[in-house]
Design a protein that fits this description.
The protein has 67 residues and is mainly alpha-helical. It has helices at residues 6-14, 34-54; strands at 20-22, 59-61. It is built from two helices and two strands; from the N terminus they run αβαβ.
Length: 67
């Protein structure tokens, strides 16, 4: 969830993609202790939610589990 703004939209346009589905890649937050994993999942989900809300017709997302 590093680049999910204007640059991501430019890249999906350049690649001819109508809708990009975003998610955290493997390994996910499960490799961290419970407190850190929960915090990271919440932060990633917040960034993902903001991106999808900004570009709802261009981005969709798969959230990370918080617990």
């Amino acid at each position: 969830m590093v680049d999910v703004g204007v640059d991501k939209i430019a890249q999906v346009d350049a690649d001819g993609i109508d809708l990009a589905v975003l998610s955290i890649t493997s390994p996910g937050v499960q490799v961290f202790n419970r407190i850190t994993a929960t915090r990271l999942a919440a932060d990633a989900n917040d960034v993902l939610s903001a991106a999808v809300n900004t570009y709802p017709k261009r981005l969709a997302g798969l959230a990370s589990a918080k617990s």
